[in-house]
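Quick illustration, no need to memorize.
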Amino acid sequence: MTVMTVAPVTMAGAPAPVVHEITRVPSARAVQQQRPAGGLTRMSMGEQIEYAEMLARSGMVPKHFRNRPADVLWAIGYAAELGLGPVAAMQGITVINGVPSANAQLMGTLVRRAGHKLRVRATGTEAVAELIRADDPEHVFRVSWTLDDAARAGLCRLVDGQPIARDDKGRQLPWMSYPRAMLRARAISELCREAAQDALSGLIYTPEELGAVWVDEEGNLTNAPAAPAIEQQPAGPSAQDAADRAARATTAEEVSRLYRLAHGYGLLEAPVTAGGITGQLGDALIARGRALRAAEQRHQDDSESYADTEYDDH
């Protein structure tokens, strides 16, 4: 937008008009609306319905759009609002309980397309996302997500620093399968909501944040894996194995590690036999740990007593 200002004219020697050009940065919404949505905008409603029905029959569209032409038609309209093609919209957008959501990749695309800078670095234990807005380049928005954050949010449990997350059938949940990708998605979505919500057009949550349990490494809905057969569950030690290892342990710290491991795999209430007595694994580990700790304390007291005696003799 250009604004013209003219200097006042005097009787003696009128100066030439002075024109100042003021360039205003368009809003994210304006940028999106300026982008053509492709050939779909030239289709009639009947043609769009026919196109949606064809896409819904395709085996290449995400499963939540298959055989649902009305949902596909909605996605086409939403894609036009975002300036995206329908395929990109269907790959990145999922409706959870009537609320549209987007994977982190699509959020990042929308934010960068609005002119903002987004940087992300992630490891298996922490993800840090930074955003610099085009209209406020001096300020850096920053969000970090760690496994400790995920544990506090109830998304997983930490056992010896490793995330443990299983459903009631023993299947690994995404936070256990690919924690790096999950941390990255959480950091991106929280940052985009905080710093660039105007660029998201209402897509402010990921499917997982809205309660979707089974998502893939890209954050899209996926089918739950088949429950493993009982004989194919060597994910951790059996309860009796843990009890036997505790009986052979020579330090209280070894038993403490076994207790944490058993807690992570939900084995503490499993029945075991230890010392000829049948009971719960958790109780057996606690008893064994206390016995070893008491023995260690007696040994320490004897050592100190011996050292005092040696000192007195000299």
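The first strand starts at residue 93 and ends at 96.
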